[in-house]
Design goal:
The protein has 158 residues and is mostly helical. The protein has a domain of 105 residues. It contains 3 helices and 2 strands; from the N terminus they run E-E-H-H-H. It has a two-stranded antiparallel sheet with strand order 1-2. Helix 1 packs antiparallel against helix 2, helix 1 runs parallel beside helix 3 and helix 2 packs antiparallel against helix 3. The longest helix has 43 residues. The N and C termini lie far apart (90 Å). 9% of the residues are buried.
């Protein structure tokens, strides 16, 4: 039984050299892989020690999430049939969650300019989503008011 052991794998030119590192004290960007391969070594945690490499990985991750949010915003804006408020609200929550992740988790790995530009992009997406949510609510209210007026006009007495 393997138990709760941690291993560090590195390549060096010296043969029969053993390095012992305490993985709990290594500084870097930690990732827990989700993909499990059959008949392979199980990896539970990866630590990227090189700051440039960690920054590249985080930037790709953030860019993918922003592209996803922009795609959802595009679908919401193009759909004239009246997108339900649930879709807009969910996308708004995703954008706010990404903003908080950047502030809480990724600031120490990102450069100041990239961080501020990314937060500005997210702010624009959030503002547009809030606008769409407001427009949907106003249109819904107007629709219900029109229905009430039609009902009132149909119930005239003598």
């Amino acid at each position: 039984m393997v138990g709760n052991r941690s291993y560090y794998v590195s390549k060096s030119r010296k043969k029969k050299e053993t390095r012992i590192l305490e993985l709990d004290h290594i500084e870097g960007y930690k990732v827990n892989p989700k993909i499990k391969e059959k008949d392979a070594i199980e990896v539970t945690k990866i630590i990227f020690v090189n700051p440039e490499f960690a920054e590249k990985i985080i930037r790709k991750k953030i860019d993918r999430k922003i592209d996803y949010l922009l795609g959802k915003l595009k679908l919401i804006e193009e759909d004239d049939s009246g997108v339900d408020n649930g879709t807009v609200q969910k996308t708004l929550e995703d954008a706010e969650k990404l903003r908080l992740q950047i502030i809480n988790n990724y600031v120490k790995y990102l450069g100041h300019t990239y961080e501020s530009l990314t937060l500005e992009k997210i702010k624009l997406i959030v503002d547009r989503l809030k606008y769409n949510l407001y427009v949907n609510m106003v249109m819904k209210e107007n629709y219900h008011e029109d229905e009430k007026e039609e009902q009132r006009e149909g119930k005239r007495g003598r």
